[in-house]
Amino acid sequence: MTQTRILTLVGSLRVASINRRLAEAAVRTAPEGVEIAIYEGLGDIPFYNEDLDVPGSVPAAAQALRDAVAVSDGLLLVTPEYNGSIPAVLKNAIDWASRPYGAGALKDRPVAVVSGSISPNAAKWAHGDVVKALGVAGARVVENAHLHFAGFGERFAESHPRDDAEALTQLGATVHELVQATGELVSA
After folding, report:
1. DSSP 8-state code for residue 31
2. Is the bond preceding 120 in cis, omega lying within 30 degrees of 0?
3. In the predicted structure, residue 114 carries a pLDDT above the cut 50
4. Does the pLDDT of residue 185 top 50, yes or no?
5. What is the pLDDT of residue 188?
6. Which residues form the NADPH-dependent FMN reductase-like domain (predicted)?
7. Distance from C-alpha of 3 to C-alpha of 59, rounded to nearest angstrom
8. Mean pLDDT of the region 109-138
């Protein structure tokens, strides 16, 4: 089996974000033969603008994202919920990675979505918006890999998700489903 590459996009730019910590914990669940990398630099990408999306002069930060998505075997998106919806930085990443329309780096790429918030809603509204945007963009959303964390202000206030056995088990199951969707993992 070749190395499977999973690229993780985190919808919060805050260094101490619990969503970022969930992504870090997911990295630890990678089975043998799977590399999970957290993409750095989403905050450097300009807002999508067709005037900037011109072959040969795409902003370097946007092109770097497209290239990283294109060489990945699958994506793991981790999203908080801002005002009941998807964070702008994550929507912007989806917009850039989806272009050119019908042939962007997201086309047919397997994607799993993890959402979490301090509310009992577990960022399910943002999750739904991310899934919708990915579907319209042509990604292959892996329904069996969805995961929601509710009330994590209390749950992870004093500890990192990597120290929570239940969270690691859940994240590991999500990663497993995503890797299976890439066609790289054979069930035993």
Report:
1. P
2. no
3. yes
4. no
5. 37
6. 4-149
7. 29
8. 94
- Residues 147, 170 contacting (CB under 8 angstroms): yes
Sign of the dihedral defined by the CA atoms of residues 34, 36, 37, 43, in that order: positive
Mean pLDDT of the chain: 93
The count of C-alpha atoms lying within 13 angstroms of the C-alpha of 119, restricted to the half-sphere facing its C-beta, is: 12
Within 8 A by CB and 6+ apart from 148, the residues are: 114, 115, 116, 122, 123, 124, 127
Q: Is the dihedral of CA 188, 68, 160, 171 positive or negative?
A: negative
Whole-angstrom distance, CA of residue 134 vs CA of residue 113: 10
pTM: 0.93
- State the greatest distance between any 2 C-alpha atoms of the chain, in Å, as a whole number: 49
H/E element, 54: none
Would you state the structure tokens that stand for residue 42, as one six-digit string?
């989403």
User: Which residues are CB-contacts of 2 (< 8 A; sequence separation ≥ 6)?
Assistant: 33, 184
State residue 184's pLDDT score.
54
Taking Cα atoms as reference points, which of 36, 119, 42, 130 lies closest to residue 78?
130
Instruction: List all residues 6 or more positions away from 16 whose beta carbon is below 8 Å from its beta carbon.
Output: none
d(CA 17, CA 171): 17
pLDDT value at position 30? 95
